[in-house]
Amino acid sequence: MKLKAEIQSEFGGLDAFVNNAVARPMKRYTDPLDCWKSSMDINASGMFDIVREMADLIEQKDGGSIVNIGSMQGMFGPDFSLYEGTEMDSPPDYHFHKGGMIALTKYLARKFGPKNIRVNCISPGGLYSGQDEAFVERYNKKVPLGRMAGHDDIKGVVVFLAAQASSYITGENILMDGGLHA
Ligand SMILES: NC(=O)c1ccc[n+]([C@@H]2O[C@H](COP(=O)([O-])OP(=O)(O)OC[C@H]3O[C@@H](n4cnc5c(N)ncnc54)[C@H](O)[C@@H]3O)[C@@H](O)[C@H]2O)c1
Question: Ligand 1: which atom is nearest the Cα of residue 129?
């Protein structure tokens, strides 16, 4: 893999890997099975491929941290009432992959603990990105903090899990949902 070779030659390994990418080929429950399959290719097979290769680079540095970005949708079923009257849906592949990510986090934490590699997951609630106004209004009313997450909300949690500040935490999943499930 080109990326792996470049990191290896430039930095001699990797200290931390944040596994953030996601593809959304499936938008709705009723979408064709091909959308599910494409999601499987990227969000399951591709995701595992990159994590395994990056873990290898972290091992070359005698340890470090992997931070998986999951979602509350991997922990809880969808609240369909939020989407009523909008074009939005909560596609099933997303729940499937984000739930699997939490399980994989625990698997990798056990596998790589002895190599001093910590593996944790962050499960954010909804991030604001210009969604349908009706959805946002309904969502905000349900959240104790009264708003959707912003991009800045996740940075501190990522830094915490990537750094030595969390040196004895591994296999953990941190729900970051503004209190929605409190
Ligand atoms: N948006 C939300 O409300 C929300 C809520 C909870 C969790 N999350 C999680 O936060 C993370 C970021 O979400 P977002 O909303 O910014 O997503 P996004 O769709 O805006 O961005 C995802 C990024 O992944 C990249 N990507 C997709 N397929 C790729 C591939 N095969 N290889 C490399 N890169 C690829 C895309 O180019 C894009 O830059 C995701 O893991 C998502 O599941 C998002």
Answer: 1
Q: Is the CB of 42 under 6 A from ligand 1?
A: yes
Q: Is 158 in the pocket of ligand 1 (CB under 6 A)?
A: no
Which backbone phi and psi does 176 adopt, to 5 degrees?
Answer: -125, 80
Q: How many CA atoms lie within 13 A of 160 on its CB side?
A: 13
- Number of neighbouring beta carbons within 10 Å of residue 138: 17
> In CATH, what number is assigned to the domain containing residue 38?
3.40.50.720
The domain total for the chain is: 1
Give how far Cα 115 sits from Cα of 29, 59, 68, 158, Å.
Answer: 41, 7, 18, 21
Known catalytic residue at 167:
no
Is 98 noted as a catalytic residue in this protein? Answer: yes
Domain coverage including residue 156: 2-176
Q: What confidence tens digit (pLDDT) does each residue in 4-48 have?
A: 999 999 999 999 999 999 999 999 999 999 999 999 999 999 999
* C-alpha 174: how far from chain center: 10
Instruction: Please indicate, yes or no, whether the overall pTM of this predicted structure exceeds 0.85.
Output: yes
* CB distance 23 to ligand 1 below 6 Å: yes
